[in-house]
From TrEMBL:
<dbReference type="InterPro" id="IPR040044">
    <property type="entry name" value="SRR1L"/>
</dbReference>
<keyword id="KW-0732">Signal</keyword>
<feature type="domain" description="SRR1-like">
    <location>
        <begin position="1"/>
        <end position="158"/>
    </location>
</feature>
<dbReference type="GO" id="GO:0005737">
    <property type="term" value="C:cytoplasm"/>
</dbReference>
<dbReference type="Pfam" id="PF07985">
    <property type="entry name" value="SRR1"/>
</dbReference>
<comment type="similarity">
    <text>Belongs to the SRR1 family.</text>
</comment>
<protein>
    <submittedName>
        <fullName>SRR1L protein</fullName>
    </submittedName>
</protein>
<dbReference type="GO" id="GO:0005634">
    <property type="term" value="C:nucleus"/>
</dbReference>
<dbReference type="InterPro" id="IPR012942">
    <property type="entry name" value="SRR1-like"/>
</dbReference>
<feature type="signal peptide">
    <location>
        <begin position="1"/>
        <end position="37"/>
    </location>
</feature>
C-alpha cells in the first residue's frame, strides 16, 4: 500500500509534477497497483483530483492530519516536503515496534530535522520524531542538478524491528496525541481549516 500526503498543485507547479511522476514510477517499480495508493492534499483542485482518479489513484475523503495507521500491512508513505507535524502525527498513529517496522517514509530527512532544530524544540513539539531517531535507518535520495528544489533534503526512512526493540521500554509507554499548542512554525493544515 501507499499513502501520499502533500503532493501539491501539480497542475500549476513543475516540482509537484516531478514528484507525481516519481510517485507513479515508484508504484510501477514496486508493483503497487494505483488503486492501492491513496492521496490527500487540501490544495488539490477539482481538475487535479479528477486527473488523479483518471490515473487510477484513490483520494482520501478527509484530512487525516497524517494520522494514518498501517493496519498490519506494509505501507509506503510518500511525503516529500511535508511539515514536521505531519511526520510526527504519522509516527504517533503507528507508535509500536510492530507497526513502525511495516512503515517506509519517503520525505524530509529526519537527520536534517534534528540538525536544524534546537533539541528542546524537537523534543517538545515533535517528540515522536525525537524518540525514534535511534530506531530509524535513513538514506538520502541522490541529488541531481535539475531537481534540486524538487527532492532536496529527501530521504528514504525505514524502521528495522531489531533497532526499535533496542529502544528503552519507556519510549513506548508515552503515547499522548501531539497537540502543538506552543509550536511557532506549525506546517500542517488541520481538519476544518
Amino acid at each position: 500500500r501507499c499513502v501520499c500526503y502533500g503532493l501539491g498543485r501539480f497542475g500549476r507547479c513543475p516540482a509537484a509534477r516531478y514528484q507525481l511522476a516519481f510517485l507513479l514510477l515508484l508504484l510501477d517499480e514496486l508493483r503497487v497497483p494505483p488503486a492501492r495508493c491513496a492521496l490527500f492534499d487540501p490544495a488539490f483542485s477539482a481538475r487535479e483530483a479528477a486527473a488523479l482518479r483518471a490515473l487510477g489513484l484513490c483520494l482520501l475523503p478527509e484530512n487525516e492530519e497524517g494520522k494514518h495507521g498501517v493496519e498490519g500491512a506494509a505501507t509506503l508513505f510518500y511525503m516529500v516536503h511535508c511539515g514536521k507535524a505531519l511526520y510526527n502525527n504519522l509516527l504517533w498513529s503507528n507508535w509500536s515496534p510492530a507497526a513502525l517496522s511495516k512503515l517506509v517514509i519517503i520525505g524530509n530527512s529526519f537527520r536534517g530535522i534534528e540538525e536544524r532544530l534546537l533539541s528542546r524544540i524537537l523534543e517538545r513539539d515533535y517528540s515522536y520524531i525525537a524518540k525514534v531517531l535511534k530506531g530509524v535507518e535513513e538514506v538520502a535520495l541522490p541529488s541531481h542538478p535539475r531537481y534540486l528544489d524538487t527532492f532536496n533534503d529527501t530521504s528514504v526512512h525505514w524502521f528495522p524491528l531489531d533497532k526499535l526493540q533496542e529502544l528503552s521500554p519507556e519510549v513506548w509507554d508515552f503515547v499522548e496525541e501531539p497537540m502543538y499548542q506552543d509550536c511557532e512554525d506549525l506546517e500542517i493544515i488541520r481538519k476544518g481549516e
